[in-house]
Design a protein that fits this description.
Elements (H helix, E strand, L loop, with lengths): L2 H17 L66 E4 L2 E4 L1 E5 L4 E2 L2 E2 L3 E5 L10 E3 L4 E9 L3 E12 L2 E15 L6 E2 L4 E5 L11 E6 L19 H7 E2 L1 H7 L12 E5 L4 E6 L2 E7 L2 E2 L17 E10 L14 E5 L4 H9 L5 H12 L15 E3 L13 E3 L3 E2 L2 H10 L5 E5 L1
Parallel strand pairs: 15-24, 18-22, 21-23
Antiparallel strand pairs: 1-2, 3-6, 4-5, 6-13, 7-12, 8-9, 8-11, 9-10, 10-12, 10-13, 13-14, 15-16, 16-17, 19-20, 19-24, 20-21
Helix pairs in contact: 4-5
Amino acid sequence: MTQKTFRSFGRHIFAIMISVGICVTLLLFAQMPAPTPENAKDAASPVDAVVTTDPVAPAAPYEAFLDPNLADGFDFPIGNIDGQGKYTHKGKTYNGWYIAVAFCEQYSYGIHNGEDFNGRGGGDTDLGQPVYSIGHGKVTHVTHAEPFGNIVTIEHRYIDNGIIRSIFSQYDHLKEVKVKAGDAVKRRQKIGTIGKGADEQFLAHLHFEIRKEAMRDKDPTFWPSSNGWTVEQVQENFHSPSEFIRNHRSLPHPPTAKNFLICFKGDRTLHLFSQGKIATSWQIAVSQEPIGKKSRDGDLKTPEGFYHIREKIRGPFAGPDWMKFLGVAWMRIDYPNRVDAQEGLKEKAITQTQHDAIVKAITQKKMPPKGTPLGDGIGIHGWADPDWALDGSRALTWGCISMQKKDLLDLYEKIPLGTPIIIHP
């Protein structure tokens, strides 16, 4: 950047940094409280960071994020991807599907732990209609039992706000089964057809469940009401199927992304993945409080979750002395995200209005509002000369990720705006 261009942008950049409460860091004296943007101008001159011998966590299992069988989103198990669409039975066409028995509805068999999907033609008009896997996964069980008939259970591993989790989709009363235990299946792969249960004792329909990870060791035939479970226990161990699918239609999928960043706070590394392979890896520094996720302004913690790079600015940066710790470039992420907002609302750290404004911005792929009690101004930046040392704990910033000069420039040139980033514990 030329000196002339620098002057023209200096005031603009300074305003951005002040308004977002940027988390760049001054190093601490051993007994000095951490400076903040509000008191940075009064802070003592920077000194060398306190070097500790704190062990760095072992290398994170990044390979798990490159598993091509990770779910990239979920669709409905019948009809079209939205659980609707026409179907034909004995030459007559019917339009759509409906839920005959809802999740947690009390009915003749007790508490319903899933949803019963029926064709709108009623009766057995949906007999033999295709049943699809809701997403990429692996078949864990193919079972036949009274009164369920044929059952298929599939484990789906997916990224939930930066953490890999599992659910188990289960399809009961199938007439035909097209898979076997151990099979890898893809999203919308046909796994069977709608049936009537063992000995055809029901009208044709699909009983569909989504079991949470805590149900991993439960038999596919486990029925909550036969085991004295309450509605609360069912809600604790099963997802409401349609609600879960609607909320997880599209998921981050590093194995197929052109550019995808994953930061592992524990081992102080940042990786750029491209098409399922590591393109580049860098050493990083993190926040002064490296354990735990950011939840409040000034807590000196780095966020944990799924974010995007929403701003990119090249230095040098004009302003107070502490701004030199931005180094050669600044890339801001869209913290707080939906989950941060939900947790902040639950903890009464923010208002409903603030929560809604954050969710709206994230939905629109914009930067969330500034100045909430959850904090803001989180991103990736450099460091003042000289760069921080590789030894020691590298717990230095007010909440951001810091990179050495040459690495930051390398990253800056390689990633476009909108690049997703997972910040992992």
